[in-house]
Structures are given as structure tokens and as C-alpha cells.
# Entry
Amino acid sequence: MRTACFSLALATLMAPSVLAQATPEGLDGFVTLDRLPVPDVAALAAGRAVWGDTCQNCHGGNKLTGAPKITSTEVWAPRIDQGLDVLFDHAINGFIGPKYAEMPARGGNADLSDAEVEAAVAFMIWASGGDSPALAWAETQIPKE
# Structure
């Protein structure tokens, strides 16, 4: 009986439902890929992989860069309100924000395609309180038969 209870408790602790939840401040500490949920939508899951390889370094919560922290609805809301096209443009072409924080083109990874950058941005939006626009974008990425 104790083994079954321990196994159930361990499974509960490891369940995806206890993974990242978007909050006004975002997750505590530096956010790494393993702390973020895996989206059910393929385009967003692809963006998650790109985020882990490139974007995590700044958007995981590195305060020195000034990048908006993933899962922080408070800092992402005004950005999401600008629309996906603006955010995609900033991420693909680079951007210097009002506080002189720089978003380097393609997150500093020149090997990323436009589609990969867009997927990473959509994933960040999805994980930061903007699930509706991210899911709407992801629907446009489904190949038509």
C-alpha cells in the first residue's frame, strides 16, 4: 500500500499539469525548457524546440538582457497586443526597445529560418498568456491537402 501511495504521489508531482503556468511575474527563477509544457500543436511544439536551443538564454529570465521572460503575462501582454506580425518582424529583423534593450535578428542565430523564428515567437506567446493568437497562427501552419 505504501509503495502504491508513493508511486501515485511521485506520478502526481511529475504530471504535466504541474509544469509551467503563465502568471503576471512568470515562473520563479530562470526558466529552462524542461519547466515548460509541450504544446499539443505541432507548430508550437517545433517553436518550443527552437526556444530551447536559441531563445532560452535571454527569454528564460536573464535580467541583464532586458528580454521579456517567458511565462510572464504582465510583460508579454502589451507585446501581444501589438500583434503577431510586429513581434515576428522584431524577432526576424531585430529590434531596439524603448529601454534600449536589443532583440538581435533571429535571436543571434543567423541559421534560423523565418518559419523557425515565427514558431519560437508563437510558442513564447502561447506560454505567456497569449494562447489564442498563438493557436490561431498555428492553425495556419497546418499543411493543406
In short: The radius of gyration is 16 Å. The helical segments are 2-14, 42-59, 73-81, 84-93, 114-126, 131-140.
